[in-house]
Amino acid sequence: MGRRLRSSMPSSTDQLLPKTVNPAIVQTRLKQKQAQQKKYYDRSSRPLEYLSEGDDVYVQHEGRWKPAIITSKAGTPRSFNIVTEDGAQYRRNRIHLFINLINTSFQRTLTYD
Prior knowledge:
Order of helices and strands: HEEEEE
Structural class: alpha+beta
Mean pLDDT: 86
Number of strands: 5
Number of helices: 1
Largest sheet: 5 strands, antiparallel
Helix content: 10-25%
Distance between the termini: 66 Å
């Protein structure tokens, strides 16, 4: 072992030897735990609807949902460039965008850069 024990209780030298664990057993247990966790996660997960350019969405910004329009898909997966009512441009992940089902879009002319 790496340190000297403080106990004055007698012990056998076999108990002081380090125990090695078979890496294959550790790997299989890890895979089983990961599969179990994936099963629990997949119970409540759902695929998000596809968004395209010009879709009316609500964007979560500073804890509130604001109406916006998707101007383009960003270079990374699941990211979109959007423009809000006040003309501010943002890049947001798909999880922060909510599809506007009521179809009450703000009417304004957008210039695409």
